[in-house]
């Protein structure tokens, strides 16, 4: 984990549910900032290993046990069903949380499940914030994630200084579900950018240009983007064994397209990019980085 300087804040009892490529480092930053952290993971040995690696950290066998003494329960799991499985039922976090505790969900999920769980939490005397993140694994490891939140202002204000351990931007967008909707906007923009970048790189290669030089030049102008600076050269080199997986992007775009049907927004490019990602999956690129869109284009052979 990259060293990070943490702002001094009062220690808070927290729990973190889900120790994947995002959750593990995020929980580590909470610990590094001086907060008490109890972790849960579906594979219990992973939670035990995390606790062993973080002196003073604890692991629990169920979400309910992990959440029992926490003022704030953070979570980052895979999808709507995973989220329901760690919050609801007799072993779910909601059954163990003390009155007034806050559940902060960093999963990229549907706006529908965010609203559903917020209502359920409120009915139990709990508070809920949907807070999907952007920044990828590197952002989680370095503690510089961008977090988009949906919930109540007072709850957000209470969580923000604690979440600063792993976030460089923590912003309230609106009521429950708004964080997930903002993340959908994020994914719409990323999909379009990546397709445009893929076509630009492919065009430049077909024209015989040295794309490393071209990308270095145009990234200093109006075409500049995070995707260009971090994925342009790897696209040129056909390197995709890293980063945000195509499977995850298709999950996210599924939420986007479902929501677009409800609000009747037109997403012609996003729909097309989703079909392109389906082709990447069909070609065996499920775990490729999302920049693998270029693999579908007729790239020239190099001599």
Describe the protein's architecture and organization.
By secondary structure, the protein is an alpha/beta fold. The chain folds into two domains: 13-176, Rossmann fold, CATH 3.40.50; 182-296, N-(1-d-carboxylethyl)-l-norvaline Dehydrogenase, domain 2 (Orthogonal Bundle). 49% of the residues lie in helices and 13% in strands. A six-stranded parallel β-sheet has the order 3-2-1-4-5-6, sandwiched between helices. The protein has a three-stranded mixed β-sheet with strand order 7-8-9. Helix 1 links the parallel strand 1 and strand 2 (36-40). Helix 9 crosses helix 11 (226-236), helix 9 packs across helix 12 (246-263) and helix 12 (246-263) packs antiparallel against helix 13. It is globular and about 65 Å long. The protein starts with 12 loop residues before the first strand and ends in a 21-residue tail after the last helix. The model has no long low-confidence stretch (mean pLDDT 96).
The string of secondary-structure elements, in order, is: EHEHEHEHHEHEEHEHEHHHHH
Please identify the structural class as seen in this structure. alpha/beta
Fraction of residues in β-strands: 5-15%
Q: Globular, elongated, flat, extended or rod-shaped: what is the shape?
A: globular
CATH architecture of the largest domain: 3-Layer(aba) Sandwich
Uncertain segments of ≥5 residues (pLDDT<50)? none
**In percent, how helical is the residue content?**
40-55%
The side-by-side strand order for the widest beta sheet comes to 3-2-1-4-5-6
CATH class of the largest domain: Alpha Beta
Number of domains: 2
What kind of sheet is the major sheet? 6 strands, parallel
Distance between the termini: 41 Å
